[in-house]
Amino acid sequence: MSDPISRDDVAHVADLARLRLTDDELDHFTEQLAAVLEHARDVEALDVADVAPTAHPFELSNITRPDEVRPSLDRDEVLGQAPSTEAGQFRVPPVLGEAP
Amino acid sequence: MSPTSASTATAIAEAVRSGERSAREVVDEHLAAIEAREPELHAFNLVMADEARASADAIDRARAAGEQLGPLAGVPIALKDNLCTRGIPTTCSSRILEGWRPPYDATVVQRLAAAGAVAVGKTNLDEFAMGSSTENSAFGPTRNPHDTSRVPGGSSGGSAAAVAAGFAPLSLGSDTGGSIRQPAALCGVVGVKPTYGSVSRYGLVAFASSLDQIGPFATTVDDAALLLEVIAGHDPLDSTSIPQPAPSLRSELGRGVEGLRVGVIRELTGEGIAPDVARRVTAAADALAVAGAKVDEASVPAVAYGLSAYYLIAPAEASSNLARYDGVRYGLRVDASNSPEMMVASRTAGFGDEVKRRIMLGTYALSAGYYDAYYGKAQRVRTLIIRDFAAAYEDFDVLLSPTSPTTAFAFGDKTADPLTMYLNDICTIPSNLSGDPAVSVPYGVGDDGLPVGVQVLAPAMQEATMLRVAAALEASR
């Protein structure tokens, strides 16, 4: 049985999920996530080692379509929805370090 | 609020095709109903009055030109605001997508247009379809047309309320853990979660991809069947779409239930179900027996683990699906000096609390050291649920349960503790995990006078039998 989720665990997953939490939010979310995971103990306790996992209700495999040229989304329409663009591309702040 | 026969989708389409009514007249009537009561209910994030009038005029012109009109000619329909509509804002009731105009239409939106339906607006939902009351909408909750101090259910609360209030005879919702059926029950309308893969998900903003399914709301079973016939069927743009044509449903509805084997699910009628709701399920079972069905108790033991399995699997898939909202290609961007900070700032400002909870829960369930204990276990439990349903369907053609454990609850009643809110979904979640279809049919009222929904469940692709039973229940009211 795993340990209850800790405040540090929540801070860690928030970081992984690119979310920033205030101290109050950390306390609050830790308590709420712990309650949900506590409920999940019933599943955690089941012995289902010999049961195969289901990822999808109806497994369809090798789904292909004819390799035909067809129109894609309109580039200007797509870029028109972006917060910032330049020369037909999405523009983002520097990926490393500070802006010049 | 009860539908008159002239206000059903089938009656409207027939009248428009025959020229007895114009599509414009029909849409103006519904826009007037929206104008009168929408300020009180907030079913919509966006009312598409101009677009709706233009589509209606186009249908009237097509008829005048002698063109063949589709099965939904001139029928107003409301669309859940997580269905992509080209050039028309699609928000998922989230700040992070506020103002976004999709560059394409969902497949269902295209099929509706081809069938002559007239989209009248985009309906409110719990943010990214995560919730059971619409209280998680970033733009404020929807109110239940039967009692505005109560929630309409969720997450497709706006779509359910729009049909219940007569804003449109039809609407579309999406159902990941009960998000069509539960609000249908609470608002006293019919709501169908079709078999997973029977309706294309292309253009449905993803929440939990192995569970999400689009489906109809209507005031009658016949109307729900009509809409499902239009939207179902294979779509090459959705790789999980079942490669079969849309089934014929309406022609089966009148066949009755003589000799059908109906099982009342023991595990979903006892503890945790309000007595007044449980009594309506018993009344429904009795009515089916009177109509000639063989009714007995059925057992699907693994559904007891459905809630836990669902609240590991759905957040896990959501945490992955919602990683795309990073302020780069669309939606909200909060400026920062570098890209990683921009992403954190955008996501932190753009998502509401419930979405953050589920993203974190899912990230945790998938993280190193916990994957096997949580996500892996939940996937195996999913197999157990599928097995138990398969065993039950050896003895029964359809199964019966409540849709929701209670009637519509008051605003704020369940927002303090997420788990209390999640318990709303215990009866609906199992069908999403198994992929099988289920429908909620209004069946009388509870002690508070508010609608109760009875759920009919069926094996995969058995919508025709399922809706036959629903139609028999409807006829027995």
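Chain A has a mean pLDDT of 91.
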